[in-house]
Amino acid sequence: MPSLEGLKVLVVEDEMMVSMLIEDMLADLGCTVVGPASRLDEAIDLARAADLDCAVLDVNLGGQPIFPLADLLRERGAPFAFATGYGDAGLRDADRGTPVLQKPFREGDLARVLGELRQAAARA
After folding, report:
1. What is the C-alpha to C-alpha distance for residues 52 and 55, in angstroms, rounded to an integer?
2. What average pLDDT score do residues 50-63 get?
3. Nearest-CA neighbor of 11 among 65, 63, 64, 66?
4. Which of 10, 93, 102, 104 is the most exposed place for a label (fewest CB within 10 A)?
5. b/e code 37-76 from CB counts within 10 Å (16+ = b)
6. How far, CA to CA in Å, does 94 sit from each of 36, 60, 74, 98?
7. Torsions phi, psi of 11, nearest 5?
8. How many CA atoms lie within 13 A of 81 on its CB side?
């Protein structure tokens, strides 16, 4: 497993308690949190302006799908994972194959997916 130390991770999550939990996990793993963002417009602004290595995206932000941000990240070559309680059932065909963190997830699950994202970024 590659080191996650210093990995800059954009966190997009609309539930404050879940967001705080992800931030704590990322800190424990040595990552730097970008954001977090709880709204799509805020997340898109961060993705455009911030220096980031990868992202963890809640699929549904208060009823608003995250897909415009997923498309932007894909265009910029920034790997990401979806965080959802619905597995890949709520994803578009274009998003099949994207890593999915099934909520609720543990720190080990997050570390595994971030390792995959770091490797994907290194290959890009």
Report:
1. 8
2. 94
3. 66
4. 93
5. bbebeebbebbeeeebbbbbbbbebeeeebbebbeebeee
6. 25, 16, 10, 9
7. -110, 125
8. 25
- The CA-based angle 58-64-65, given to 5 degrees, is 55
Distances (CA, A) of 65 to 14, 62, 89, 90, 98: 12, 8, 13, 9, 16
Q: Which residue has the higher pLDDT, 81 or 86?
A: 81
Q: What is the DSSP string of the chain?
A: ----TT-EEEEE-SSHHHHHHHHHHHHHTT-EEEEEE-SHHHHHHHHHHS--SEEEEESEETTEESHHHHHHHHHHT--EEEEESSTTTT--GGGTTS-EEESS--HHHHHHHHHHHHHHHHH-
**Cα(21)–Cα(40) distance, integer angstroms:** 20
User: Is the pLDDT confidence value at 2 over 80?
Assistant: no
pLDDT band at 60 (very low <50, low <70, confident <90, very high): very high
What pLDDT, in 10s, does the model give residues 83-94? 998 888 889 999
